[in-house]
Amino acid sequence: MPGTRRCATGSPAVAVSGRRTSRTPGGVEEPRRRRLLRAAAALGCAALALTACSSGPVSAPQSESPFGETVTLKVGTFGSFGYREAGLYADYMAKHPEIVVTEAATQDSEEYWADLIEGLNGQGGKPLSDIQAVEVGYISEATGPLADRFTDLQTAPGVHSSAWLPWKSAQATAPSGALVGLGTDTGPMAVCYRKDLFQKAGLPSDREAVGRLWAGDWSKFVDVGRRYKAHAPARTTFTDSAGGLFNAVLSSQPEQYSNTRGELVYEDSPGVKKAWDLSVSAARSGLTSGLKQFSPEWNQSLYLSGFATIVCPSWMTGVISKYAGDRGEGLWDIAPAPAAGNWGGAFLTVPKAGKHQKEAAALAAWLTAPEQQAKVFAATGNLPSAMAALASPAVQDATNPYFNNAPTGRIYANAARTVLPAPIGRLDGTVKAVISDVALVDIARNGTDPKKAWNGVVKQIAEKTGG
């Protein structure tokens, strides 16, 4: 499911999990969110003067190699993966003087993916890079119909599939057993909440006590919402959107929109049913704002302290701090989610059409190794997918001053370790958008009957997918 990687704009405390972009349970982003994050990326790039965020190639200076002719490796990415910011390209070239590394970054992941498809098919005007990043929303295509276009990295030097979170490696493994991609970052879930609004509503505000309120079950989260509503401060709702809640609940389920063959099964999916029922209940009870996530109205309400909670993957902390602004600093905190889920992440792949597959595989393995993932986290806040990196002091000891010094590294790393793997299909993003951005908004805002709204979902998806 498509996403748009953002430029990170701070220390690991302000963790913006990479491209990241807005994602659905498997990782898809909605169009308005893509526009928002492209704007955020542009602002971040201007503020930090990071050339890695430009739409054109970012090249490292070429130096003479004592071994003769140099090999130039191009890394194709969308948004900022943090490699330049962490100094990894320069470090690799210092260790390998026969290698020159360049980067070509595109802000819009859908545009990036379309160009990559054309390149893999030998079409279009943009040549393939030696290494191509793939967003999690598209990984099912890379491991499915396009698997034979990518190098199997299973036996590449420095690659040990067990080094990554098991569900992360599983996402990039083709039915043949080929490892198509090496995991970069992840987007595990937590709950960002306003301490002051919780206090005014008579609820606990300490993050450990808050986490215990809903531990183990998303239905408890909705129950807490009802307690909040009974004494809610004026002009506030318990959570930001029914769509955000739906996405969060579904991301914690082992069966979502598609089966292991990539076929849509959303109509009969237990995970979709659970997420739908809970989010509909919250919407009809007035616990949600009736706004679409990342819309201008949503941004404004965030600034005006309209939400007591937002279910937030690691990259969402950057969105909240951006739109809540200085007035929200120290008032927001973070507690573990009722159940672990993931919204975001990417992989590095090596197309077979590349001229330097061996060298490219070695660079991809090095960039995604635990040591380098920890450095990227320290530089940009992109949460690692390598287990050793998640356990490192750089991650475990990270805190976020904006969120009342919440131990973001520990909270998100713990969540990442317990995510349940779920199949990802290429049409998941289409289903997600119709449910969360149309049907649930209609129910929350207009009081539309849930049965009528669901029938509309089925009809729209059939029209969009030809089903």
Molecular structure report:
The chain has 19 helices and nine strands. It has 467 residues and is an alpha/beta fold. It folds into two domains: 31-187 and 343-417, Periplasmic binding protein-like II (D-Maltodextrin-Binding Protein, domain 2, 3-Layer(aba) Sandwich); 188-342 and 422-465, Periplasmic binding protein-like II (D-Maltodextrin-Binding Protein, domain 2, 3-Layer(aba) Sandwich). Helix 8 packs parallel to helix 10, helix 9 (242-251) crosses helix 18 and helix 10 (270-284) runs parallel beside helix 18. The two termini are 19 Å apart.
Helix content: 40-55%
| Number of continuous helical runs | 19
Q: Uncertain runs with pLDDT below 50, 5 residues or more? A: 1-67
Determine the CATH superfamily of the largest domain: Periplasmic binding protein-like II
CATH architecture of the largest domain: 3-Layer(aba) Sandwich
| Number of separate domains | 2
Structural class: alpha/beta
Q: What general outline do the C-alpha atoms trace?
A: globular
List the secondary-structure elements in sequence, H or E. HEEHEHEHHEHHHEHHHEHEEHHHHHHH
User: What is the overall pLDDT average?
Assistant: 86
Largest sheet composition: 9 strands, mixed
> What proportion strand?
5-15%
Question: Given this structure, which CATH class of the largest domain is correct?
Answer: Alpha Beta
